[in-house]
Amino acid sequence: MGQQARKRLIATEWLLAAAALLFMYPLVLAILNSVKTMNDILMHTGSLPRQYIWSNYKTAWSVLNFPRVFLNSLLIDVFSILGVTLFAAMAAYQIVRRPGRFNNATFGLFVASMVIPFHAIMIPLVQVLREFGLINSLFGIIYAYWGLSLAFAVFLFHGFVKALPYEIEEAALIDGASIYSVFFRIVLPLLRPITATVLILNALWIWNDFLLPMILLQGPEKHTIQVAINTMFGQYMKRWDVALPGIVMALAPAVAFFLLLQRHIIEGISSGGIKG
Fold first, then answer.
1. Tens digits of per-residue pLDDT, 157-183?
2. pLDDT band at 260; cut points 50, 70, 90
3. What HEC string does 37-58 produce?
């Protein structure tokens, strides 16, 4: 590597490090302010805590009813991503292995729906769910997440399934295996890289989503973490000393989940893109 190229590499690394610090700054502020008094938060937001009030976390745990809202968020997240992953894998497999006008048109509709913003379908979605009695229901919001997440998941699976050798499946069918045995025992295990990608991307999005739970889950007993934190802010009330510890506790599982499985995101997307 030449001297000039080495300098450019070092400059790029420093630039990326500065950008990383810039994006990390809000998280650092949230952590620091989560252990301050309310007055210290308002008067000295950017400084280190003058006194560490660890009891803020205990207060937030109680006021937000954190065990309950955490369980709601977890149930919604787990069942949403499992459903989306299974349905998307099956749909992509059917589209790739049974090409035809209908399946090609279906895939085109999946891709086209990816450009429709959620705000454009928000009111019709609420009306449809109300007609089926799914408002203020955990199953209702899980069902909504299935529909909203399916298009992108099918798109990712589609590129990966195209790369799988059909000869393996053909041999299994000749040996008497059913199409369901072929899919669940042969195809699905081979889809593990892109499956991990779909699971991670949807898990992080659904865990951090605020708008859909706020619209569909109206009772306090059905609140997710994000909606519960939002109740700390009103026209005459802003409880930052409760909200910030709640935000930190909500972020911790998502950050840990991402750090443990982040390599699968790039691996799955790049594999699907190259092979598809």
1. 998 888 888 888 888 888 888 888 888
2. confident
3. CHHHHHHCCCCCCCCCCCHHHH
**Angstrom distance (rounded) from CA 268 to CA 160:** 9
Write down how long the chain is: 276
Q: What pTM was estimated for this model as a whole?
A: 0.84
3-state secondary structure of 237: coil
- Domain positions in the chain are 65-275
Question: CATH code for 65-275?
Answer: 1.10.3720.10
Query: CB under 8 Å to 141, separation ≥6 — which residues?
Result: 76, 212, 213, 216, 217
Both structure tokens of 265: 């995101």
**Can you tell me whether residue 108 is helix, strand or coil?**
helix
**How is residue 34 written in tokens?**
């989560």
